[in-house]
């Protein structure tokens, strides 16, 4: 773990950010290539008319690609994160994700990744939270890191397999143990790195959209899953790169 962090210290945060925003980048590009289909879907679902449906697709396209460019260029990162939060909220309502628990948990996990990105962009977290009293030694940035970690683990709740095979039970037990370690902040970097490797393997194996012809609906479904999982991997890589923050067992152990 120490050798990995030493070797990757320079570029790991950049890779983490790219992974994290990948689902927004892919969705923004998809809005461009599927402009008519997306507009017609929104118009038919919400009976909102041609112009409002067009505005929705345009907002998604500009908001997501613009937000990604700002995040990767390290300009106005806070505003980019708030914009992407808005896109998640908008899509959750527009595509009726609110009533699908699995997709809702994945969207919340995605929000957790953005929360970590927001925390990373704050050196102290003070200017945005001016006048907010801090509890003990913990700054708002550290509570954002805690919230981000807790939301990220929701992704793994959607990957648990509820059957009686030995492999599934073993995978669930190991996965749940790692999830708890990341959430409470104990051996956080090692647990997060292990989850990254596990998720990468699962993602490439189960969400291999490139093996399905693009005209089949399953292609889009697998691609959506693939990039959402990649974004959560990016959030975990940020945890590996930056640590768990002050509100964690790892940090409290230093005080003890």
Automatic annotation (TrEMBL):
It is found in: Endoplasmic reticulum membrane. GO terms for biological process: Golgi organization; protein transport. GO terms for cellular component: endoplasmic reticulum membrane; endoplasmic reticulum-Golgi intermediate compartment. The keyword Disulfide bond does not apply. The keyword Phosphoprotein does not apply. Keywords: Endoplasmic reticulum, Membrane, Protein transport, Transmembrane, Transmembrane helix, Transport. It is a multi-pass membrane protein. It holds the Pfam family SURF4. The chain crosses the membrane at residues 50-72, 79-98, 142-160, 166-184, 191-210, 230-249. Belongs to the SURF4 family. PANTHER family: SURFEIT LOCUS PROTEIN, SURFEIT LOCUS PROTEIN 4. This is Surfeit locus protein 4. It comes from Cyprinus carpio carpio.
């Amino acid at each position: 773990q120490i050798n990995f962090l030493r070797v990757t210290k320079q570029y790991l945060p950049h890779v983490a950010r790219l992974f994290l925003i990948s689902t927004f980048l892919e969705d923004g590009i998809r809005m461009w290539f599927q402009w008519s289909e997306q507009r017609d879907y929104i118009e038919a679902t919400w009976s909102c008319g041609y112009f409002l449906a067009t505005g929705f697709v345009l907002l998604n396209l500009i908001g997501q690609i613009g937000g990604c460019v700002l995040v990767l260029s390290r300009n106005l990162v806070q505003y980019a994160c708030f914009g992407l939060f808005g896109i998640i909220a908008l899509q959750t309502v527009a595509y009726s994700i609110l009533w699908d628990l699995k997709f809702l948990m994945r969207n919340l996990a995605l929000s957790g990744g953005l929360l970590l990105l927001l925390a990373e962009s704050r050196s102290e977290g003070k200017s945005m939270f001016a006048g907010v009293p801090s509890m003990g030694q913990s700054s708002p940035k550290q509570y954002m890191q805690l919230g981000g970690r807790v939301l990220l683990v929701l992704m793994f709740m959607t990957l648990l397999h509820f059957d009686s095979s030995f492999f599934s039970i073993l995978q669930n037990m190991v996965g749940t143990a790692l999830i708890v370690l990341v959430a409470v902040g104990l051996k956080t970097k090692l647990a997060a790195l292990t989850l990254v490797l596990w998720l990468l393997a699962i993602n490439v194996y189960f969400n291999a959209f490139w093996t399905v012809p693009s005209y089949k609906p399953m292609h889009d479904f697998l691609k959506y899953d693939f990039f959402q999982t990649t974004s959560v991997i990016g959030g975990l890589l940020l945890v590996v790169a930056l640590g768990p923050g002050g509100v964690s067992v790892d940090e409290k152990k230093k005080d003890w």
